[in-house]
Each structure stands twice: as structure tokens, then as C-alpha cells.
Amino acid sequence: MILRKLLLLCLLVSQLCAAEPLKEPASEISGSLVIAGGGNLPDVVRDRFVELAGGKKAKIVVIPTASSTADGADAAKALEPWKQKDVASVVLFHTRKKSEADDAAFVKPLTEATAVWLGGGDQAKLTAAYRGTLVEKELHNLLKRGGAIGGTSAGAAAMSKVMIASGNPKAVVEVGFGFLPGAVIDQHFVKKDRQERLAGVLKDHPGYFGLGVDEETAVVVTRGREMKVIGNTEVVVLQSAGGGKQGSNHTLKAGQLADLIAQSRSAVARSQPAFPPEKLDPPKVEKGALIIGGGGGLDAAVWKKFIDLAGGPDSLILVIPTANPDPLPKEPSEMKALIKTGAKNVKVLHTRSKAEANSAEFVAPIKEAKGVWFSGGRQWRFVDSYEGTLSEKAFHDVLRRGGVIGGSSAGASIQSEYMPRGDPLGNLNIIAEGYERGFGFLKGVAVDQHFFARKRTEDMTELMTRYPQLLGIGIDEGTIILVQGSTMEVIGRSKVAVYDRKKEVKPGERDYEELPAGAKYDLVERKRIEK
Predict the structure, then answer these.
(1) Measured between alpha carbons, how far is 116 from 107 in angstroms, rounded to an integer?
(2) Helix axes 300-309, 333-340, angle to 10 degrees
(3) Contact residues for 138 (Cβ-Cβ < 8 A; gap 6+)
(4) Cβ–Cβ under 8 Å, residues 242 and 215
(5) Structural domain count, the chain
(6) What is the extent of the structural domain holding 226?
(7) Does this model's pTM top 0.70?
(8) Looking at 241, 270, 299, which one is the last position of a domain?
């Protein structure tokens, strides 16, 4: 009977069971979070919270329940710093009774608030009062309607689903509110043993990353995913060892950024088998063809080749512009180029929603298409919208029935098994944890673009040193590779670099082979095809 109860408890809090790693990375959040590490709260933190709350129109609810003094007359002192900010209203909100926390009349201030601040103290007091109640529901509703939730010390720790409740250096873990998905938050991180404590929690909870926030500092989460450090000290982002990678900790100072989704994806990937695997499938297109471009303008001959491979001008061709930021033009440049070159049946297909990308209605045109073109932009946006969906499967099916897939710049890197430059914060790093998997239309390779124009040869060397099992392909601007079977043909105004670490590279020698326009290369045999 006791064992059965323990198993039931583990099931109810499965997010906290070491045997149940987090399998899905975080999605973008609605609203904003201000996660402060405790100590004296700098004006820059308070001011940013008020700004996110609506400035002079802000309606702020202050919850001091974590404090042992919240039941006394001094509780109202928690309001004073916020009243000094010239906002529309500041309301005290507190109970220790779950029955009261479930009362609609009591909870009404939360339904009218633009922001809620969770005070410091003991985070277990917060969750004991409000977990599973109407209060918790309304706090999540506040975020959904674009409001802000902030908290310091205990109020920060409670924002985790996996919540460090107490204990040092060995943590006692409970269930928190889960406002920041995929993360475990620790505060007062100036203490030396806090890093050991947070690392221990991450080890026991695969798939989560750690966010250690120092005193007088905060992490501000906005735009669904951007995590920016403000304040006087620093924040540490921790990742556990796993997935073929060593554990890591990255220190962020005021003004520096991290990406919530990338960190969460990295943590989930570390709980899974290593990628890329040591043994890779050969880079061969069994059916159909790939056109993979290095960015910049492409000649009309390239567009004509793509149309021909798709079955001619009357074939349905889809342009996927998702790599571009919003707002998207009604007619992307790739669509205009295809129409100008003679294509008569070109349609745009786009979504930012994985749920929509997984729907039969959205996938229907992909099942009819004979050609699909992936736009330039940032390749991580393709991943966010289509990875693991019915749409991604349908893209592969275009090839299986003999069609053609093309793309340039971002639309090139997404086609390889290893996707370079997937960092949502910028395209300078060729290795971007969390966004290393492409769609794998061409197995066993890593394709980089704008290669010689942007002097990226040493970047590919870095990638090959990390993952020598890959075949590295760097495509310059105005140039494409046409892949059919295991044959790669270089077409265009410039050249292509091939990196093969199966061949010995002597010190001082160039570690890649240059292929000019017109050259052909066997991707399986890893050698140039002589005429």
C-alpha cells in the first residue's frame, strides 16, 4: 500500500521524477517575467517591471505570502516601493488558506491586474497557499493576456515547475508554478555552494536547464523567449552533461542575452542519444533532387533548372518563407523569381504554429507539390515551425516521389543533417546548441552558406574538429550544388569547399578542397568525379 502511494505521488509530479526526463522543449511564453535573485533590488529592476506592467497605467498586485511577516501589520510595507513608482494602483494580496485562494471574490484583484510581484521569503509558503488553486490559474491567465509576473528570491524560485524549496548543498525539490518552462531557477547565487546545488537538481531532472540568478540582479523574459540580464551582478546558465556533451555553465552579465527555447532544446537534447551520431548514413538522395544554394542572387538558369526538376511550368511549387521575420510579404522574392522564370503554379505555404503544421489541411498542398523551395532568413525558424510535424514528413515525401527540394542561405542549411548557425541570437556561431539538427534531406553533411563571401572557412574547421564524422560543405554566394543520387554538381558564379576529415590534413595545409563551377563530386566516395 505504501509503495502504491509513493508511485501515485511520483506520477502526480512526474516532472520531478528523475526517471521521467523532460521530453519536449519549452515553447514561447506569453507575457513577461522578471526573475530577481534577491538582496537589494536595484532601481533598474523595479523600473523595468513597472514598464512591463504598463507604466503609469500599471495595476500591480503584490503577494508577500512567502514572508513570515505577511500575516502581520508590517505586510503593507511591501507596497511602498511600488507606490513610489507613480502607477495606477498597488494592491496587497495574501492568504494562507487554500479555501480562500479558491474563492472568486478573493481572487478578483488578479483578474484586473496588469502585473503581479511575488516577494521573498520561503517559496514553499507560496506554493502551499496557492498551488492548484484559482490563484495559480489566474496567475497563468495574467501571463496569457500579456501581463507581467515578477519575483525576488523565493518569488523567483517559485517560477520553476521543478522548484528548489530548501536544502543546501543537497536540494529539497517541490512543484512550483512553472511560469518559466524548461528551467530550474535558483537565487542568491553568489553563494559558492549554490552552483553545486543547482547542478545536482539538473542531474536528477534530465531535460531541464538551470538559471542561477545572483543578488541585485534579474533575468527579464520578453518577446516569448528573450532572456536579458539587468542589475549589478550576474546570472549563470547551467547545462548537465549528456547527449555526448560535457556539462557547461555560461555566465551572463548585465545587458547580455540568452534564448529560452535554445537553452531548453539544448537541455532536452542532452537527455537523448548524442547528435550527430558517430556513424552517419551516407549522403545520398535516393529519389528526386536537391538544389542547395549559398545565398545572394541566383541566376535565372538555377530557377529554370528547379522548375524543370519539378516537372515543368505547370507543376505545383511551394515556397516556404518561414525563415524570414514577420511581417512577411505577400509575394516573397523566391516566388517572384520562379514566376518570372516561367512557373505558373506557385503558392506560398507558411505557419509559425507546430499545431497547424501538424494538421491535415496544412499538409494537403505539400502532398500535391512536385517542388518545395525554402527561403533565406534564419534557419532556426524552420525548425521551430516544422520539426517533428506531419509537414516535415511530407517534405521528405516530395523527394520520395521524385520531386525536388531547393533553398538558399537558410534554405540551404536546413537541408543538411547537421544545421550550422542555428543560434536565434545571431548567425556568427557555426555551432549552436539546441539548434543543431536540420531536416536531413541530405544525410551525413553540414552545409554552410555565404561561405567565401563572409570568410567562413575557419568556422567550418571548428565544426569539423568537433564533429569529424560529418562531411562539411561550404557554398559561396551566387552558387548552388545540385545533388542527385550521390553526385554533387557545382553550378553558378563561384565555388564550393568540401571538408573531409577522413583524409589526413598536414600542418600548414588547407583543410578543404575547392570545387569550381562545373565540378562534380561523389558524396559517398568523398572524391571528385573526373571528366
Answers:
(1) 12
(2) 80
(3) 107, 110, 111
(4) no
(5) 2
(6) 25-270
(7) yes
(8) 270
